Predict the structure.
Amino acid sequence: MAFPGGRRGPEDSSLLATARRETLEEVGLDLGGARVLGQLDDSAPRSPTLPPLVVRPFVFHLPKRGNLSLNHEVDAAVWVPLGALAEAAVYRPYPFVLGEQTVMFPGYHLAEGVVWGMTERILTPFLQLLGIEIRSRP
């Protein structure tokens, strides 16, 4: 599970424009009228198999949930209330099998799937900025 996003294109005047364009392309959500709350700290993948890149997340406020229309890059999309991420035992280790080895990563175990990896590393500091206590389980 991940947020919409992608590379800055020549048509994008800024990374904020990229965030708006990619969100519209991937999930059909027009952020043109949404209020920009700000940007979060840059993040980068930790996997040596991925090309080096930096992700700059932006946060928007929508007065209400919009309808989603997915493109070919997206299998599914869900709206998750922020409070659901703070429920007891939602934040717990996620076992990722890497060859013969299982590596444990932190993750949000939701009914719709597990949020882990870079998406978790973007989401957790955001929730902390909001003052949402994350109740983890070892």
User: Anything to note?
Assistant: The two ends are 21 Å apart (CA to CA). The first helix runs from residue 15 to 27. The chain has two domains: 1-78, 80-138. The first strand starts at residue 35 and ends at 39.
